[in-house]
Write a structure and sequence with these properties.
CATH architecture of the largest domain: 3-Layer(aba) Sandwich
Number of helices: 13
Radius of gyration: 23 Å
Distance between the termini: 77 Å
CATH topology of the largest domain: D-Maltodextrin-Binding Protein, domain 2
Largest sheet: 5 strands, mixed
Structural class: alpha/beta
Mean pLDDT: 92
Low-confidence stretches: 1-24
Order of helices and strands: HEHHEHEHEEEHEHEHEEHHHHH
Strand content: 15-25%
Number of strands: 10
Strand order of the largest sheet: 2-1-3-10-4
């Protein structure tokens, strides 16, 4: 073979490899954070069934790789999104409002769920919130500034008490640890939601303190999905896939809690029948309820330093509700 033909063949082969490499696009990447509890069931379903990935594939023909990270609180998620470690997350609406007002560069892209919240206690002398005021009894909840903290403040306010009257009693614990601390007697009370609340209600050594449903029902927004403005503004296909995938998770629960439980039960440690019963006690839809009023309560009572503005300042334009 002549040298000229060898060089020509090498050039053609190299060119073909280059063209092939150009045609093989790298998978899009997305980093998402979430937390504990059945309020996050649509996220669990979306993760397990790869619904976001499928929506992105249908829209673009491209692959999507998602990194899922479970965190202990909305405050942790705020730190992660501010540092650029995550693109989207799911958290209580209280920390979400705080992050938006603090200009961390995100907004709400969907409502996630509404769940009942109550305070359970192991102390027979504690039967109302006023029994805790001025005492050294500790109340476990996710974090200062969490949605549970805001609900507690609203309940105190509704009873004519200082919304911050129990701030010094709060000890921050993620939901599973709070339940364990309550059952062991390490804390006197625990403010939590599904499924931990219902598991605690089955424990005959515990009882409910007061009733918080007068200030926040399972119809009100508890959890929301948030994502960076950068993702929303620059990657429309990815943003739309995120919205669609979560909505499909919500729709599955609404269509059949039993089918949804077959997916989520193993993650929560419940049998499928119990899991389905717990799922039916929550509200799972994309429309927010009550977040504008909650934001104003937070501003009025010093949970945030700046006026949160209007509803439209808190959510992306695809979101509806109040």
């Amino acid at each position: 073979m002549k040298k000229g033909k060898l060089l020509s063949g090498m050039v053609i082969t190299t060119f073909a490899i280059a063209i092939s490499s150009m045609g093989a696009s790298a998978a899009e990447k997305l980093n998402i954070a979430y937390q504990y509890g059945l309020g996050y069931a649509p996220v669990t379903i979306a993760q397990d069934q790869k619904l976001i990935e499928a929506a992105f594939k249908d829209a673009t023909g491209d692959d999507l790789e998602i990194t899922w990270t479970q965190m202990s609180s909305g405050a942790d998620i705020n730190t992660a999104i501010a540092s650029g470690d995550i693109d989207a997350g799911f958290m209580g609406v209280g920390p979400a409002v705080s992050g938006i007002v603090s200009k961390l560069g995100y907004k709400v892209f969907t409502n996630l769920s509404g769940q009942e919240h109550q305070i359970m206690s192991n102390d027979p002398d504690v039967n109302s919130l006023t029994d805790l005021i001025g005492s050294d009894r500790q109340i476990a909840l996710v974090n200062i500034g969490s949605i549970q903290h805001i609900i507690l403040a609203e309940a105190l306010d509704a009873r004519g008490e200082d919304p911050h009257a129990l701030d010094s009693n709060i000890v921050a614990m993620k939901h599973p640890d709070g339940m364990a601390a309550l059952q062991s007697g390490a804390v006197a009370a625990h403010l939590t939601s599904n499924p931990f609340l219902y598991q605690e209600q089955e424990d005959t050594s515990l009882h409910q303190v007061d009733d918080l449903s007068d200030v926040w029902t399972n119809e009100n927004t508890f959890l929301v999905g948030i994502c960076s403005e950068k993702l929303h503004d620059e990657k429309a296909d990815l943003y739309n896939a995120l919205v669609k995938g979560v909505k499909e998770g919500q729709d599955l629960i609404g269509k059949s809690a039993e089918d949804a439980a077959k997916i989520t039960a193993e993650y929560d440690g419940n049998d499928e029948k119990t899991e389905a019963e717990f799922l039916k006690k929550g509200t799972y839809n994309a429309e927010t309820r009550g977040i504008a009023d909650l934001a104003q309560f937070m501003y009025k009572n010093g949970f945030i330093d700046s006026d949160p503005g209007t509803y439209e300042d808190l959510v992306f334009d695809n979101v509806s509700g109040d």
